[in-house]
Write a structure and sequence with these properties.
It contains three helices and six strands. With 139 residues, it is of the alpha+beta class. It has a six-stranded antiparallel beta sheet with strand order 1-6-5-4-3-2, with helices on one face. Helix 1 packs across helix 2. The protein is globular.
Length: 139
């Protein structure tokens, strides 16, 4: 069986440093995802709450500004499983490419609804990030 790994990417009309701030700074994260209680820095444990009230917790494993960020990610529906979110920012002409890999998700059939919900959630959040960055750059 193939493991459930979410992989997504999008192109943004912003430089890598700006996108990095949107991935690590509580104020930036708040504009498109959820506001963490602390900046996302190596070794830092964080917590945040989804719009629906679901707690999200984890620890930042790697932070190599402005190219790579990796942290653990846990929500209660995952049970004992702890997943990992990996972000890569790659400069391209006119902006950058942002890539996401979310792995370590529960594999049993009963958990597939959670995988679908996370997949849809990341899609929604990517759209919010694009809109937030477009508004920032238009100002």
């Amino acid at each position: 069986m193939t493991p459930s790994i979410l992989e997504k990417s999008l192109f943004l009309k912003a430089d890598a440093e700006t996108v990095w701030r949107y991935l690590t700074d509580p104020g930036g994260l708040e504009t498109w995802f959820h506001r963490p209680d602390v900046p996302l820095e190596v070794g830092q444990r964080y917590s945040m709450c989804s719009a629906g009230g679901t707690p999200i917790t984890g620890e930042v494993l790697r932070a190599e500004a402005p190219e790579y960020l990796e942290y653990t990610f846990h929500v209660p529906p995952m049970g004992e499983s702890i997943s990992t979110v990996k972000w890569r920012i790659t400069p391209v002409a006119g902006g950058c490419k942002l890539s996401l890999i979310h792995e370590g998700l529960p594999q049993e059939a009963a958990a597939f609804g959670l995988v679908l919900a996370l997949d849809a959630g990341w899609e929604e959040h990517f759209g919010k990030m694009r809109s937030a960055l477009d508004q920032l750059l238009a100002a």
